[in-house]
Amino acid sequence: MEPNSNFTENQLLLSSAQLQEQLEQQKALANVIVRIRESLDLETIFQTTVTQVRQLLNADRVAVFQFDLEKDWEGEFVCEDVAPGWDSAMTVKVYDYCFGKQFAASYQQGRVQAVADIYKAGLSDCHLAILSKFQVQANLIVPLSRVNELWGLLCIHQCSEARDWKESEIEFIRQIADHLSVAIQQAKHLHQVQLQATKLAQAAQRDQVIAQILDEIRSPLDIETIFKTTTQEIRKLLQADRVAIFSFNPDWSGNFVAESFASGWTPLVGIQPAIADTYLQQTQGGRYVDNQTFTVNDIYQAGLTDCHVSLLEQFQAKAFATAPILQGDQLWGVIAAYQNASPRQWQSYEVESLTKIGTQIGLALRHYKLLAYAQYQAEQQKTLTSVITRIRESLDLDTIFQTTVTEARKMLQADRVAVFRFDPQKDWEGEFISEDVVPECNSVIAEKVYDYCFGENFAHLYAQGRVNAIADIYQQNFSGCYIQILEKFQVRANMIAPLLKKGELWGLLCIHQCNAPRDWQPSEIEFTSQIAQQLGVALKQDSYLKQVQMQVVQLAEATEREKSMERQELLAATIDKIRQSLDIKTIFITTTQSVRELLKVERVAIYRFNSDWSGKFVADSFKDGWKPVTQAQPMIRETFEDTDDDNELPRNETFVPIREGEKLWGLLVAYQNSQPRYWKEEEINLLAQVGVQFGIAIQQAELLEQTKRQTLELTQALQELKQTQTRLIQGEKMAGLGQLLAGVAHEINNPISFIFGNLIHLNEYTQELLNVVELYRQNSSLLPTVQQQIDKTDLDFLMEDLPKTLESMKVGTERICEIVLSLRNFSRTDEVQLKPVDIHEGLDSTLLILGHRLKNNNKRPAIEIVKEYGSLPLLECYPAQLNQVFMNLLSNSIDALEEKYKTIQENYLKLSQRCPIISLTIWISTQAVNNQIVIRIADNGLGIPEEVRSHIFDPFFTTKSIGKGTGLGLSISYQIVVEKHHGQIKCSSKPGEGTEFLIEIPTTS
User: Fold this and answer.
1) Whole-angstrom Cα distance, residue 984 to residue 968?
2) Most confident of 67-71, 345-349, 936-940
3) In angstroms, rounded to a whole number, what is the distance separating the alpha carbons of residues 13 and 18?
């Protein structure tokens, strides 16, 4: 009985443990279910599940693996709980190429895989390699599904050892996997709901943005602001790289008129020439005319033509969506959204938004056009009122015409508006008398025009007041001669209104469009007709005014004749005043004042021609209240081209020529500035007589001035001749001195070379003789007479002094050689061309020549020379001439120092005081600076006063006493440095401190 009781007890204990284990599993399952229901976050659910499952099963790793549905069973672990000591499997990409063949179908059916020992389960090598990578010995795999689709795997890994999985554990894991699948499905539904909510929010936001854009389009803004705001807001709404508005031309080419684009892309607005889409041109707008949109997700996959793709590549576009902009029933343009960085799948709501905006832009354009037309009509009425007011305010026909053409061209935006007047004496021939024209077109003023077929075709129509409007001269059946006349004036479209004076055709009001054809609007034709009628009224007023003015002139002629005699007397007095002076300015003043008083005019001016027939006013006399014309200096005008016929018309000025002998010198002009004046023949004759006398006076004054000028030129030429002569003499002296020095140096050099060469042998021979004599002295067998002679001649002294004497002769000879070399360097008679030389050699040679002046004498102590030579390149120059400059400057410095010593010594003698030691120093420094050689020669003499220093380089200027200087040394030095060597020579001095001369010579020409 005891064994059975033990068995029963063991069964009870086993059953109790199983129940306890099942209880724990159910608790864990319930906890997982609660967490799944509490949380909507899939990551939190996963993390809670793997943690509790690993703790309950006491496994080494529990992890959730998710497949990438777009790849062939590739995936990664998205959540895990792993025991310490084992590697994490997170973020490791896993791909088992044999998974699909062996396990995929089983897992999709919900099958669980429990492997107690991976090495004994008959797994494939690739599967074993993957499991070994994660240190797995035994594993339990349960599929995770989502709507009959294998979403992932729940993996339980035993890494430390093999493990036999119990049925209860497998069932428990299967239940956990079922609830996880539910959680995955819930998460998917939640994501879809959130996505729909986001789309609804985006749609609401789009509707709000579109509504805002529509409000701005409908607001009373200018069209450019509407375009700018619309493109910016639509680009933000669609998150596109570019949104642009394209406007069509009449030929279906077009241009971008507005755009908004992300940084880094090239602007399209302003591209020239116009963009031409052959498809749109051939179909005259294509699908857009039918209010259809056009979207392309990828320009390279849409089957577009090569030319269309090339055009889009110029826009940097890879995808686009377009919608038409209709202005009423007419296609105005297109609004386009471009994706430049990559292709794009355009959504229907995006295209719909673009269409709405295009429709509203079309309405805004139509509203803008209507508003512009209303404003245009208002401006027409305003311009017409202004012209009528000007006509009524002014009596001057030219002013009325100019005001009218200016205002009319501005109103009609035409290229030219002009007034054409017929010549009543000729058969329909005439000319343009007033115009306002754009700079790009030629002026037609004073152009003679004759159309022999005008009278036959147009004259009777214009006489009836008909306005002729031509949209394109080449589309009408005009004669060749008429076309030729219009082409002469660059006319492409024109509108002609007749100008009638008392029922007769007086002229034409011409509106020209030169750059292109133009369809004239009825309002424009009516406006032009009204303007022409008002000009007809002005012509009639002008005719009445001229009749009244003519009557006034006739009444004034009698009074004028009475004044004629008085003017003749004044003329004689005026001519007498002009002849009294030979000063040109006095003649100008006398003439203008006398003529103004003589003719009772408001201004008299003298205009002088230049050699090129331009000119300027040189004198004028004017009435109080007017400005002088001598300051304005205008060029001569066309109104100076006088003709006999013009004398019959009133003018503001009249003029007569001024001749200097046979030469036209200028004009004598009389002005009546306040109003036009009928100039009488006797007035013009008086002005002409004054002009003749004025010309004679100018000729006399010019002759006097020419005589003075020639006298001055001769004086200057004589002075220059003297300077040149003196310079030549000085140059000949320096050349003679150079040749003399070179000759002396050559003559001295031969004997000195002979002496210097023999001194070496003489020294050797003497030394040998002295050695022989010494041997004689040491020999005891000397004769008494020889010994007596040796004692008598002081042989010891001779033997000691003779080598010294020879050495002194050698030193003297070397000194003479140096002097000869310096003389040759200074003279350089064989170097008259440019040659690279060492500047220091020239300076040293000059110092050597001047050495006798630097030594002390009975009048002063020695002059100290301080050299500060820099490292200089060879300078290409005229060596002899530069040595002359150094000689002049150093000689002047020595003279200045001697003068300083003499002055100071005399001052102390006058004071009966002992003169202190006076320092006499010359500093010479050289350096190379910025491609220039700079030479400074300074002394500490008494200095040069400023009034003297400013003239020291002038020819013949000297402060030395007669016989001590010619005044040409520094002048010649200046010429050598500046003119010969293109350098500079400057002098700076402080009285009492000294003087410095600075020479700068460029090293490159």
Assistant:
1) 17
2) 936-940
3) 9
Q: Which of 639-648, 669-678, 814-823 has the lowest mean pLDDT?
A: 639-648
Among the listed residues 776, 574, 575, 606, the one whose alpha carbon sits nearest the alpha carbon of residue 693: 575
> Which range (56-65, 448-457, 467-476, 931-940) has the least confidence?
448-457
Under 8 Å between Cβ of 475 and 494: no
| Burial classification of residue 301, based on how many CB atoms lie within 10 Å of its CB (0-12 exposed, 13-18 middle, 19 or more buried) | exposed
Please, what is the Cα angle at 998 between 992 and 999, to 5 degrees?
155
- What pLDDT digit, counting tens, does each position of 301-330 carry? 888 888 888 888 888 999 999 999 988 888
DSSP category for residue 413? T
Alpha-carbon dihedral angle through residues 502, 506, 509, 514, given to the nearest 10 degrees: 170
* 288: enclosing H helix or E strand: none
Kindly report which listed range (243-252, 502-511, 644-653) carries the lowest average pLDDT score. 644-653
Token code pair at residue 516: 């292109």
Taking the C-alpha atoms of residue 884 and residue 738, their distance in angstroms, rounded to an integer, is 10
CA 231 and chain centroid, separation: 31
**Residue 949 CA: distances (Å) to CA of 840, 935, 940, 959:** 27, 19, 16, 11
Contacts of 865 (CB under 8 A, 6+ apart): 847, 854, 921, 922, 924
Q: Is the pLDDT of residue 642 over 50?
A: no
String of DSSP letters for 126-169: HHHHHHHHTT-SEEEEEEEESSSSEEEEEEEEE-SS--PPPHHH
pTM (two decimals) = 0.34
Q: Which of 252-266, 682-696, 976-990 has the lowest mean pLDDT?
A: 682-696
Written as one letter, the residue type at 323 is A
What's the average model confidence in pLDDT over 232-248?
A: 89
Sheet holding 493-501, edge to edge: 448-450, 429-437, 416-422, 504-513, 493-501, 468-470
**What distance in Å separates the CA atoms of residue 369 and residue 362, rounded to the nearest whole number?**
10
Q: In this predicted model, what pLDDT tens digit does every residue of 33-74 receive, in sequence order?
A: 776 666 668 888 888 889 988 888 899 999 999 888 777 778
What is the C-alpha radius of gyration for the chain, rounded to an integer number of angstroms? Answer: 59
Closest CA to 883 of 927, 822, 800, 958: 822
Comparing CA positions, the residue from 209, 214, 192 lying closest to residue 350 is 209
The percentage of residues in the chain with a pLDDT greater than 70, rounded to a whole number, is: 79
Q: Are 998 and 988 in contact (CB under 8 A)?
A: yes
Chain-centroid distance of CA 149 in Å reads 68
What's the confidence (pLDDT) of residue 1002?
92
Contact between 657 and 664 (Cβ < 8 Å): yes
Q: State which H helix or E strand residue 54 sits in.
A: helix 42-57
The closest alpha carbon to 825, from 812, 842, 837, 847, belongs to 842
CA distance 830 to 396: 87
Pairwise CA distance, residues 666 & 605, whole Å: 11
- Find the length of the chain: 1005
Structure tokens given for 72: 């062939």
Question: 450 φ, ψ to 5°?
Answer: -140, 120
Question: Cα–Cα distances in Å, from 173 out to 112, 141, 178?
Answer: 9, 9, 9
